[in-house]
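Reply to dn_fold:

You asked what the input looked like. This is it:
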Amino acid sequence: MAMVAPRRRTVTDIKAQIKEFRIGEKIRGQRQQRRLTLQELSELTGLSKPLLSQIENEQVVPPLATLLKISRGLKVDIHFFFEDEGNRQKLVLTKGDDLRPDLQRQAVNAENRPYTYHSLAHGMRQKHMEPFLVEVKNSTWDDKLFFRHEGEEEFLYVLEGEIDLHYGNEIHRVKSGDSVYYDSSEPHGLVSVGDQKARIVAVLYSK
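and this is what came back:
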């Protein structure tokens, strides 16, 4: 019997899955509920008004760093964007087979997105930690990959592969079994440097 290779997910497939969360709709709803104009939200987040409009209309898939800025501007936890409304679970069990790409952090251009995030805590509200399983593609470092989040801390544990963590002016090689904890107000970013795609557990903590 011939084996049929599994169909690879395309960018269109991933965008369709992301649209299931209705992130743009949730942002617009929270903004209107707080009686904020796009210009006012722009001033609160430091993001441009046109970009916010594109995100609300789901013309742009927002990277994680952008969502963090929007969540702080709207005074909601970032997990609000990844869960079904009305879901207030006190315990969340995430099966490996149920993982789906929640968000891709955009990198140098639209075709190069080295990070794929899988949320590990759907449905848990009012939490300070946001855990993700992150897949990191092998890529060349570019300073455009730097991100920073005020009032946040991050913990990374490498499950497979190797990554270079660029932290300010420092570069740290983090291998399978290694972990690192850092203040994310410092510019930081990472790339996979091994022969295979790296897989890491990332936990974001809001102070």
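Strands lie at 103-105, 115-119, 129-136, 152-160, 162-167, 170-175, 179-183, 188-192, 198-206.
Hope that clears it up.
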